[in-house]
Amino acid sequence: MMIAIVQEKYTDALIDRFLDEDIYVTRLSSTGGFFKAGNTTLLLGCKESEIDQIYEIFKEETEAEDVHMEEGDFKVSGATIFVVDLEDSKRI
């Protein structure tokens, strides 16, 4: 299972790509911490053999950007991705 925190502006394109590739995805609205920006959390049920393909989709559809604020300059990623091993998963 992959959990990805994605900048909201990339969400629709990512979901479209995942659906085109027959990769299951669930969308959850969320809000970022420090920048309080609109984010989306994506939950992706995937096989280990699909992880590299999913990483490539994220690389193609998102990008990091520089943010200039009064507090300083920051690099904000387009997506932060966590991979979690699941012992079992059922669709009911």
TrEMBL record:
Coiled coil: none annotated. InterPro entries: CdAMP_rec (IPR010375), N-reg_PII-like_a/b (IPR011322), N-reg_PII/ATP_PRibTrfase_C (IPR015867). Gene3D superfamilies: 3.30.70.120. Pfam families: CdAMP_rec. It comes from the Bacteria. Signal peptide: none annotated. This is Transcriptional regulator. It comes from Peptoniphilus harei ACS-146-V-Sch2b. The lineage of its organism: Bacteria, Bacillati, Bacillota, Tissierellia, Tissierellales.
